[in-house]
Design goal:
alpha+beta, Ubiquitin-like (UB roll), 5-stranded mixed sheet, 2 helices, 7 strands, about 25% helix, globular, nucleotide binding, Molybdopterin synthase sulfur carrier subunit, Mopterin_synth/thiamin_S_b
Amino acid sequence: MIKVNCFAHLKELAGGNHIHIDKKELTVKELLEEVQRQYHIQTDSVLVAINEEYAFPDDQITEYDTVALIPPVSGG
């Protein structure tokens, strides 16, 4: 099972700080598809970090990785 940390408004949409995907491994693209399907969270502009580094759609995630969903951030 892959544990995904959620930040900012994604925590509210997910119903908590973490969500769980019942897979041992998948790509970033597959993760975002699962998040949309299971949690109905729009992921078009969400960034994914694996082990504290930004990830690309084809990067592989395993159940041992630290994964985070990061929404777009704006500042002033």
